[in-house]
Write a structure and sequence with these properties.
By secondary structure, the chain is α+β, with helices and mostly antiparallel strands. The protein has helices spanning 50-55, 64-77, 84-100, 216-233, 245-259, and strands at 5-7, 10-12, 16-28, 34-47, 109-118, 121-126, 129-137, 141-148, 154-167, 192-204, 265-269, 275-277, 280-281, 287-289, 296-298, 307-311. The chain is built from 5 helices and 16 strands. The structure holds uric acid.
Length: 317
């Protein structure tokens, strides 16, 4: 939220926009192959429209309906498939032209925030061949948030939502603090499951200084996801031992910062989704199921909640 404004002895912070604008865009390829995306867009303007709050005067308000239409107009204008980040930036570019043009300066817009979640439609393969116009829904989602500052600078955050990962071994948790409420035994053998929500941040000095490839951020999204997953799982045969979710999370975030120099920070939320050992015995205390790292009760709740962010320290030079 933008800095507040003092009005009538109070501090007022405000913004307005349109949330959850859903749009699907299809491109008809010259080669007969269609491509498509489905986006859920939320757009907010930071603007000086105090009179709307204080006096019922709407003359400084950009209607949220106009913002919604801008999304559809931008989708129409995109002549080829592009990343969600690129769409946000293109919309910001339009807004920035608004900001800097004398004609539109009366709009008093000081910034904008655009969020998009892309639905993971994937091309299907039939008889071993990519289908020309058939898609199925995948799992994790590509997300982005772009913040346009008054001076035209862009803060681009990309992310992944719902990346469910599990390994059946090479995980443990031991040596933690024990007190009278501690029941958990030490272990060097357990399942490790999580659903990663990750975000990583880029910074560009202006909407006009972005990479030219319209799918640059999509490619980067796939690269970051691969680094996260490779680090979580380790070598295909040997794996990698995880002493805790915390340690694995740190290794994953560090691998992203080490692999991509234009990413300045990474934030990961990694719930520890528990698979509880099943041990059953009957009334006579004779065993029905004895746990031998084989039968588990998968649970949704409660789950461990572990999150951290890692960022580069600006050099002191
Ligand atoms: O990897 C883990 N980190 C914890 O902080 C924790 N706490 C807990 O009960 N189990 C685990 N596992």
């Amino acid at each position: 939220m933008a800095r507040g404004l003092e009005v009538e002895g109070f501090n007022l912070k405000q913004r307005h926009g349109k949330a959850r604008v859903r749009v699907a865009r299809v491109w008809k390829g010259k080669d007969g192959r269609d491509s498509m995306v489905e986006w859920n867009v939320s757009i907010s303007l930071l603007s000086k429209c105090i009179n709307a709050y204080l006096d019922g005067d709407n003359s400084d308000i950009v209607a949220t309906d106009t913002m919604k239409n801008t999304v559809y107009a931008k989708a129409k204008k995109c002549s080829e498939q592009l990343s969600v980040e690129e769409l946000c930036c293109a919309t910001c570019q339009t807004l920035h032209i608004f900001l800097s043009s004398v004609l539109f300066s009366f709009l008093q817009v000081t910034g904008a925030i655009i969020n998009i979640v892309e639905k993971p439609w994937e091309r299907v393969h039939v008889a071993g061949q990519p289908h020309e116009h058939g898609f199925k829904l995948g799992s994790e989602k590509h997300t982005t948030e772009v913040i346009l500052h008054e001076n035209g600078a862009l803060k681009i955050t990309s992310g992944v939502q719902g990346l469910a990962l599990l390994k059946t071994t090479k995980s443990g948790f031991e040596g933690f603090i024990r007190d009278k409420y501690t029941a958990l035994p030490d272990t060097r053998e357990r399942m490790l499951a999580t659903e990663v929500t990750g975000t990583w941040r880029y910074w560009y000095p202006s909407a006009f200084k972005l990479p030219e490839n319209p799918l640059y951020f999509t490619e980067r999204y796939l690269d970051v996801k691969k680094v996260l997953m490779d680090t979580f799982f380790g070598h295909p045969k040997a794996g990698v031992y995880s002493p805790s979710v915390q340690s694995t999370l740190y290794d994953m975030a560090k691998a992203v910062l080490s692999s991509f120099s234009n990413i300045s920070s990474v934030e990961l939320k990694m719930p520890n989704i528990h698979f509880l050992p099943v041990n059953l015995s009957n009334r006579d205390k004779s065993t029905i199921v004895k746990f031998k790292d084989d039968v588990y009760l998968p649970t949704d709740e409660p789950h461990g909640s572990i999150e951290a962010s890692l960022s580069r320290i600006p050099s002191r030079m």
